[in-house]
## 1
Amino acid sequence: MSTTATTAVEPPVLEPGAQLAPGLQVVELLSRGEALDVYEAFSADLLCSVIAKTVRPDRADVERVRDRLLLEGELLQRFAHPHLPRSFATITGRVPVVVLETIAGPTLEEIIDSRPRRLPATDLAHLGRQLCSATHYLHRQGYLHLDIRPANVVARDGVAVLIDLSIARPPGPVRRGLGSREYLAPEQALGLLVSAATDVWGIGATLFEAATGAAPFAPLDASEEELSAAGVYLQSVRPAPAPSRLGRRLPAGMVTLIADCLSPDPEQRPSVLAVHDRLGTFTAGLAI
């Protein structure tokens, strides 16, 4: 007896020239996630290119998705920091749109994938201190990012910008698995209390991948691929591998710092300020 799998049909994306909102014209789709579409658009009000985040057509009636996007727009219009993007407007309605500045430059994920050689330790430290700067600011405003990873960092002229506050929220309990699977702190994966230490984990995971080219909890072999496919979070069953196992030699102090950030116990992770200061020992001659 044969069975036929049912594949969900993707809703269409907006074509170039379509109106996202009055005065906001689509240039092209940049990315599509599980809940949101991100477009390059042209703003008639600003007379320039902008980034427009909006809810996917098939998620327009999901209140949680709409509320998260509206909160992101509100936060980014209120916040002002050199390592966070600016929001110009939040358009409310059945399908909200958040209008953001265009940040020229590739994501850190794209840089990692395209570079023939890994970032040197001084560049890693410079990157990490900028991520600490943005994260510290968010924490002082009462919010956690909860999705710090290479795909959410844009680099331009030596400046890192931490993007995507779509799941940002105050410290407290979260649903199991909130965030991006291979970068979840154990407390996120298990749906426990998240805190500033959860974002320290994200900084450590990002630095690990920038250093080695691999996420710290991506499957290392076939058995781990099976575990991951079965829904097991690898960060709950093993520590991150040593960078040297993946062919990367780093200063001993940086290896220790990344391992400390990736401690399974949030109480054992260093503070954001401590990470910032410890990274400073590797940035001689660089202005942070």
## 2
Amino acid sequence: MKLYFKQICLLIFFPLLISSCLEKEMEENLIISEDYIDGVFFVEHLDQGVQIKIETNKPAKFFPNSERQTFDIEESGFAELSLPQGVYWIDCSFEESPSFIETIPILIMKNKAHAIRTVGSLINMKQDHQGFALVLRHVDARIGEDKVDSPIPEWWKSCDPEVARQLNENGRRNGKKIGDAIKKLQIPIGTAISSEFCRAVQTIEAMELDLEIETDSRLNHENANPNDPMFEDVFDIIRENNAAGVQLLVGHYNMLEANPHRNLFRPFNMSDGFLMKANSQKELEFVGSVPLFLWSLFE
């Protein structure tokens, strides 16, 4: 009887033991840091420097990526250093599979909470896009200058660098970079509205999204815009939108002036932007800053 009981116990518990062992062996290699969200490791930028500690569920080693912007990191996944805002890349090799290298994007931004929400919104925008507006400053435009005293009627619409400042090649590359990321994320752009300046219109064209571009003088640069400040005009344009899909707006640096959210998306360089969302009552919410370097996450 005792022998029979032992056999029964073996039949019941041995498969469970084997199953438990197999589960442990098959457990995925994971990064378990709470700051690792949506495949991105988020770090709050601080002027005095940052501390980074990447934690994993199994033994792993970390080292700088050899091909992209990176930084020195200890094999343990710890780094303490001063870095500007940007996207950096760190490689990770788990002990049980050392030949497989996982590359981790590290996003360092001033407001981590907004950065987490912005990246999550962009990643999920293919499905959840209702009410979103992507507002950009035109890409790099360093050829020529605005001739505000030009005798040409509506000179600001000219694409002649002898009349108005125009995109340079770096600007066109940045426009394509943004457009490529939008296409990769499958963000459905419903409307594209630009200022009347050629450099703003051509920013959307450089994205190569095959969009019909509307122009609105309310988005114009201060050299051809009587409204100062004009950020409320930007907000009005967003509120007026009833089209399906994400609204894309391209304007100029004067969108920063007196903007209540300006401290959250400064310095607002050429090619930078910010993300807004309108609810069903047309109330606007600032989602987060979208600097040019953010799009590197989606290359």
## 3
Amino acid sequence: MKILITGADSFIGSYLIPELLKKSHELLLIGGDKAKLLSRYNQCLALSHNNPDQNYIIETIRLFDVEIVIHLAAHSTPDDTPEDFKKLINANIMFLGKILEALKNTNLKAFINTGSSTEYLNNNNIPEPAYLYSATKTAASFILKYYAAAYDFKFCTVCPYTVYGGEFTRKKIMDIIYESLDAKKPIDTTPGAQVLDFIHVYDLVRLYLNIVDHYEKVPNETVFHAGTGNGHSLRDLVRLMEECTNKKANINWGGIEYRKRDVMNAVADTAIQKELFGWEPFIPLREGIAKYIEENQQ
């Protein structure tokens, strides 16, 4: 298949692209740095989203004759300042619009969008964006719905829950807890009552691959809640890390207040991927934590 990947230099992209290449897909990559993408994936075509010549991007996409899009590109922030608003609109709305315009004259069959679990504040599969970032992702899905209907392609959305494992470019909750183990100074966190669904990046990549392989049988507008279906509180996570390392976490629970509209319960309903593909997570949390610790010790 001819696949266009936006956000090719993202965390998920760095694990998904090698797996797609193993399956002999032809890839057109869009990211921030074209040279870095080509040095890492020299068998692919690449574009920079910073290229001021938008006509060149549009023409390259048209000539590539895209069949599937995997849209990973996004700007994420917990804040809602005027500057954040501008960045979120530019990255999550305007950039998506440019890609959709470029796809008008292609043979696009399926668009795999990436959303967020934070679009579902009440954890009931009914959209209720928790943050401004989440609101832009929900708005983007309605824009995508219009283009899919107007230009005759199907789309689905993958909403990752709390992804861990691999090499993150920015610090995540698991990194914060790991750094607290036997730390001399306590690390401030929220009270830790949030119940989250931790999914290893390898399992998340497997879900994207399943969708690519079986896109024809995925119903239009399907939302894949990409988690394991099992919830753990942050305090549960700390206990597991302590057991796996025989160390004690030095955490000041409640040293940081919960965010405005913080998501307190985010556990994925994974029924649709089980029904369509027989997808199940391969890596339980305890095993994933052991892998995480081993990778950090190396």
## 4
Amino acid sequence: MVPSLVVYFGPGEADRGWRDAVEAVALSRGWTLNWLGASEGEISPEDERFILECSPPASPDADGMDNVAILVRPTITDRVPCEDATTLENITRQSEWLARCAQLESEGTSIVDGNEIHITLPKLGDVVRAPLDAHYENVEPSLAVYSEFPLVDGAKANWRASLFHCSGRRSRVVASDDGPTEIDLTGRAGPLISGPYIHLPKGRWRLKTVLEIDPQGGASQLAFDWGDNHHRVYFEAAPNVAGIYEVLMETIRHEAWCGEFRILSLHPHFKGKLSFSGCDVEYVSQI
């Protein structure tokens, strides 16, 4: 039987409340339910319920099928989506869902505001869940481009330094989660900074980072790239005077992607240091 209603849910703790509420209403009305995993056709384990196909008990096919995604705003992720994962893993998983919502909407899926207590779903009707606690009032800064949906031109997110991997050259990290990473440039050529692998939808994107670089009298040769395995924006620079440097990069992506920013050392350095405070990422416009 072709489902009458398909509902997509995110991976977070708040999303679990919606999964339970929608399921309870559908069962109370005698609907037939089929839970799937993250992709259509993928049978869902009990704890990995992301797509619900459901049909009323009589004549569902006559009215066609409705597709709905219940979207909860991206929130501070120390408790969501899964309690046993690290903060970065949580952010990566949540960003993948948010980028997917953008894709679903472009394909005709309706987006419902999951931060409301009461929603109305096509055919199924009213669904109510328990209020979110205050924890969910704070938007996760690295996912702030998704604060409004669909994405708004000029929306920005901050990828803080603590979300990036530092390739064994980190000399000191400021205690605050928002503080910079201090990097000793001394050593072989290779990656200095990489990450944070946050998923973004298609569009025109801009990245900006401000670095404090001190070659300490040496000759530094650095490279910067931003992208994924399919496409990267790349350039090289030789900042040989101590000072503040701004890196600005833009890219146009025709499909969803997993963003990685890297700083690389292009030759062995015998001295020098770099202070990295993270990146600001901006959704410039649609394409």
